[in-house]
Design goal:
Helices cover 42% and strands 16% of the residues. It is an alpha/beta fold. The protein is globular. One of its GO terms (molecular function) is zinc ion binding.
Length: 300
Amino acid sequence: MGFLETNGAPLITDGGLATELEARGHDLSDPLWSARLLVDAPEEIKAAHLAFFRAGAVIATTASYQASFDGFAERGIGRDDAGRLLRRSVELAQAARAEMADDGRERWVAASLGPYGAALADGSEYRGRYGLSVAELAAWHRPHLEVLADAGPDVLALETVPDIDEAEALMIVVSGIGIPAWLTYNIDGNRTRAGQPMAEAFALARDVPEVVAVGVNCCAPSDVPAAIATAREVTGKPVIVYPNSGEGWDAQRRTWLGPSRYSAVQARQWVADGARIVGGCCRVRPADIGNIARAVVGAG
């Protein structure tokens, strides 16, 4: 069965992969973030995927969000080896899926392609406006996307995109790639992180056949309902939402502050509002995904 060919039933994607890896005792204060464990502890990445699958997720998002040829090069890893590590991110998720095959449930692997700002490891994915042209961004993303696509994921996750220029570049690169993709923006309120209206941002994906779902991720849960409505109205495509827990990140102290505002009740409402795929991002653990799986499958 192909991705999204599920008779309209809602799908549950995973939560914060890096959050789960940190909970398993790994220090990810590294420019490569969770991608460092592709080198140091790949079995731990597989274990984190399994934790989300066992909780009820049916989509695993790979540990390639912050993986880039540039970032690996700074660690002394050559281009060929970097390509193998990118493919390994897909293979680990596929291996976790294979381990769960006995229960007969359909599951998918989404190859994560993070924004250019993620590779800079300076927080600029929360700002956008990198000073690069659309053509320059497309040229930077293309080799990563081609390697990930060659590894055979079910879908490409073009995620945490902060502005329209980068989305336009990704639409150029994904066209003709031969694998479905989703596009999710990083938003603040009713605008992209770079300040552009959501309607204008979603419109870029409307006529791109490779993009089979649009939505938001890495945002506050309170920002999700308006994004669902706008994405549905502008594109007519299935909507995917996977926000953070709602806690605030203190960059100076490098810690999360405040209470979680992520709940199964909200996720059920997102499905009622028209979201087809729901899950979580930073600070969303397997237990949270289990709660929304039970709530959302009932809603579906």
